[in-house]
Every structure is written in C-alpha cells, then in structure tokens.
Specification:
6 strands, about 5% strand, 16 helices, about 50% helix, Reverse transcriptase zinc-binding domain-containing protein, binds zinc ion, two-stranded antiparallel ribbon
C-alpha cells in the first residue's frame, strides 16, 4: 500500500520529495496528508543498537525533544555522533555527558535501555504503547490538533528566531524548559540549607525570581517597561511570560531586549554568587542598553564588520 501512495502522491526532486497537493486524492491520502505536518512530533527513534540514531539531532529520549540545543558549542563532527558512539569502555561516556547536559537529562540517559548489538534502530509512533502507527491514534491526533487551532507556535521556535546572540537564546530555551539550577532547586535536592535568594533574601530563588520577580530584577525591568502595564508584566507564569515576549507581541519590550535582559540578570546573579559582586541597577541598565544597541546594529546589518561582544 505505501508504495502505491508514494508513487501516486510523492515525486522525488534534486532537493527532496515533493508532495502532491491537488487533483483527485483518495480518502486515505487525504487522511495521511492531514497528519503529515504532525509527523516530526509524533514519531521518535527507538534505540536498538544505537548505530543509526543521532545522539544530538534525533528525538530518542522519552518525552524529550532532540538534545541538539545542548550541542551548540560542539564541533560539527561531534554533533553527528550516533547514540552508540557515546559509549566508552562499555558504558555511557559520563564525563562528557555531565559536562554538557543538565543533571536530570544525564539521569534519564542512565536509566535508558543500554544500546547493544547491531540491531537497526527503528522509528516508532509515540502515541501507542507498542510504538506502532494506528489510524485511530492518528485520527485522534488530528482532532486534538484541530481543536487547538489556530495553534500557537511552539515557544522554542520563537526563541530561536529572536534577533539576539546565540548564548541569550540558549539561555532562554533552558529557562523555558526549567533546566537551570537555582537555590530553590538545590534546596529541594538538599544540596543547600535554604532556598533564599542571596540578592534580596526576600523569597526563594527560582528562575522566575532571578529574571523577573526579585526586587533587583523588577527595578531593572521597570526602567525599560515605561508605559507597559507593569502589573500584568509581573503576573504570568514563566512559560507564558517567555512566550509572550519572545514572539514580540509587546510594543515596549522587543524580543532582543527581552532575551538580553533575562540573560544579563541571570549572569549577574552568577557573578554575585561566585564573586560576591553585584552591579548597581544603574550599571545594569546602562550595560543592557549598550548591549541591546550593539545587537540591533549587528542584526540589522548596519555594521557589517561589527562583532557582538558579551
Ligand atoms: Zn531576590
């Protein structure tokens, strides 16, 4: 059956496959077309021998998008490593994994069935326990998809499009996925005696506290917010807040300013923690203003030889 559908509706070109979009289409094909755009999210790779699945680029860990976001600083060859190539002397290469991945992901990999032998890795359907594609679950998926139309764009897509340096985008991605270590998180794991924010000592140090709710962060944001309704700004939860501002829906805080200010506040917190030095709010505002200006010039191509320096 699949070769009939392939012959009738797909055409190979130099750049890939073209999908037929018009003319008479069978009911099955119409159904398949409806779920085509869902496939990247609806399928994942089941690791058997681990020799086909790419460790960073493919979706293979349960409930996780591809790990490529953590591979930004790796050389190209390392980004193309397969899962089996991450095995060293009969075990995962933990020294390497711990250096580049957050702890919870390293733990999840530790619990993942170990790739063994030379069996070929297989693509599986995520929505059935067996991993087999069924028309029923595909149909249900289209219904869920249709029910939430117009579907908001996934937050990470907007984050990656933000016209600001890579490090600020990577930071926002990690923040949106709660992959940053704070005192609140350390205290939950009994690594530190209390969760308090060392800057204001007025509440637990969560991600949102550091980049928005700490009085220090609030002071800096207030300078840039101008006439933006402040009370709304400080009310939403972390993911809605990031989503709203990276999609550029605010007329006052554009996506570059948003990404840069969040990142600077986080960096500032780390400097405070390790060097016991805290920039004044005025210094922070001046540094952010200058950096945003440089970034805007660079991204608008006004300064061709301009290099953005953090
Ligand atoms: Zn604080």
């Amino acid at each position: 059956m699949h070769s009939i559908i392939k012959g009738k509706y797909f055409r190979q070109t130099e750049t890939g496959w073209l999908v037929r979009n018009s003319g008479r289409m069978s009911n099955i094909w119409q159904g398949v077309r409806q779920v085509l755009h869902l496939l990247p999210d609806a399928t994942m790779c089941q690791v058997k021998g681990g020799q086909q699945v790419l460790f960073w680029e493919d979706r293979w860990l349960q409930d996780r998008p591809p790990l490529s976001v953590f591979a930004n600083n790796l050389p190209n060859e390392a980004r193309r490593l397969t899962v089996s190539e991450m095995i060293l002397n009969g075990d995962w290469n933990f020294d390497f994994l711990q250096a580049v991945l957050p702890k919870n992901l390293v733990m999840q990999i530790r619990l993942h069935p170990f790739p063994q032998g030379s069996d070929v890795d297989v693509p599986i359907w995520r929505f059935t326990p067996s991993g087999r594609f069924t028309l029923k679950t595909a149909y249900e998926l289209t219904q869920v998809d249709a029910a939430v139309q117009p579907q908001p764009e996934p937050c990470w897509k907007a984050i990656w499009r933000t016209p600001s340096p890579q490090r600020t985008r990577s930071f926002l991605w990690l923040a949106a996925h709660q992959c940053l270590l704070t005192n609140a998180e350390r205290s939950r794991k009994h690594l530190v005696p209390n969760a308090t924010c060392p800057i204001c000592r007025g509440g637990p140090e969560t991600i949102l506290h550091v980049i928005r709710d700490c009085p220090y962060a609030r002071g800096v944001w207030s300078h840039f917010l101008a006439e933006e309704p402040n009370d709304l700004f400080f009310q939403s939860n972390l993911s809605s807040w990031i989503r709203y501002y990276v999609t550029g829906r605010s007329g006052v805080i554009d996506a570059s300013l948003f990404a840069i200010l969040c990142w600077k506040l986080w960096k500032n917190k780390n400097i405070q923690a390790f060097e016991k030095k805290l920039a004044t709010m005025e210094e922070m505002i001046a540094a952010v203003t200058l950096y945003v200006q440089q970034v805007r010039w660079a991204f608008e191509g006004r300064a061709q030889s301009w290099e953005v320096i953090a």
